[in-house]
Amino acid sequence: MNQDTTRKNSCTVHQPAGSSQDSRTRSLKRKASLDRTNSRKRTRVSEPVEPSTSDFIPVPSLSQEDEEKPSFHPSDTIPADPVRVNSDPLEGCSKHRQGGKRKASDAGEGPSRKQMRNQDLVVKEDEDKDERAQFEALYQEQYHLGEGGCGCVFAGYRKSDNLQVAIKHIPKDSTCYKEMEKNKLQLPTEVFIMLKLHNVKASGSVGSSAPIGLVDWFDLNQELILILERPVPSKDLLMYVWDNGASPEEDEAKIILKQLIDAAIHLENTNIFHRDIKMENILLETGSGVPRLRLIDFGLSCVVTERSRYQVFYGTPQHIPPEWYSTNTYTAGPTTVWQIGVVLFDMLHRLTRFDTTRFLDNELTVSRSLSEDCKDLLQKCFTENPEQRPMLKELRCHPWLR
After folding, report:
1. Are 303 and 272 contacting, i.e. CB atoms less than 8 angstroms apart?
2. Average model confidence (pLDDT) for the chain?
């Protein structure tokens, strides 16, 4: 979700297990685009299969299909074992952000359940008021930037130093939690992932890596508020290409793609799977001669292990890797390489947006005007067999990128 040009997401699409590869051509319900850029909407594509054995954690906006605990949406359930991460990303955070949910204790006898519920309600209301008051004291919310599948985003600034920020409001019914192994606290999963990527300090500073930084966050009763970096000036890659009036030259596309691959390698080394890399989720800082790439919108991201396999697809349906159609499963590394190929294709074919099913049916072709090395890189990214696709580090060494 772009912080400056966010788009609404589409509805859920279901595919029965065991369906043939011809089902790729099925109709996907989605709302008509309201802007000239034909931005892609993301969705969850699921199928009624046996419980998944994939090892990953649920993230905000995801249904119970990726979780073993009671769901916020009990009608959508495919349980799976969550990955446990031993590191504590809360280390260094300011104190009012460390009061996440804690499991109830079974020890001892206390007041009646009704009395406890009433007491808890009063305490939660007081805590909510205090937390919201802190948010309003520290940050000024300004104009509306847009909406996405996880909530709405506003421009704003930090009052102490006028730092420009994006303020993301996520309804609690779209928020899932990751249990911390060290202290048993339950941390909002998107917060956990962003802290894991950046090691945020108590002062609210963020690192200089490609993933956009989490500056602050507030866990309220009805919503989760994320305070995110908002580079100024900047625009998403889709608008950058569109406003340019033509596809970028290969030399410029190389600069962007190198940064994207480096960002993906950083995520892979941190055991994070973004799941929805596309032009709309790539922000370019345009304040200098060379655009700096920032990766945004971790609302669908999850923690992975080497053996993690997925049956439920989260992301943009036009970018589903072919293995999901043939086996109803996909993995992090090959899917990320496929999506990087999609980004390069969309950059260099400005008036044609990539679609997996159309590409597999030979309705989309790579432009003959591209260099042989560039066409070879795209061909490798779009290898149908995921085991034959290059790994990210191999892709980074491709001759076109030298």
Report:
1. yes
2. 76
Write out the chain in H/E/C secondary structure.
CCCCCCCCCCCCEECCCCCCHHHHHCCCCCCCCCCCCCCCCCEEEECCCCCCCCCCCCCCCCCHHHCCCCCCCCCCCCCCCCCCCCCCCCCCCCHHHCCCEECCCCCCCCCCHHHHHHHHHHHHHHHHHHHHHHHHHHEEEEEEEEEECCEEEEEEEECCCCEEEEEEEEEHHHCCEEECCCCCEEEEHHHHHHHHHHCCCCCCCCCCCCECCEEEEEECCCEEEEEEECCCCEEEHHHHHHHHCCCCCHHHHHHHHHHHHHHHHHHHHCCEECCCCCHHHEEEECCCCCCEEEECCCCCCEECCCCCCECCEEECHHHCCHHHHHHCCECHHHHHHHHHHHHHHHHHCCCCCCCHHHHHCCCCCCCCCCCHHHHHHHHHHCCCCHHHCCCHHHHHCCHHHC
Beta strand 43-46 with 13-14: parallel, antiparallel or unpaired?
parallel
Domains of the chain: 95-229 (3.30.200.20), 234-401 (1.10.510.10)
Residue 35 annotated as catalytic: no
State what percent of residues in the chain have pLDDT above 90: 55
Model confidence, pTM: 0.73
- Residue 119: predicted pLDDT: 56
Catalytic residue from among 4, 66, 276, 346: 276
User: Could you tell me the two tokens for 314?
Assistant: 């989260």
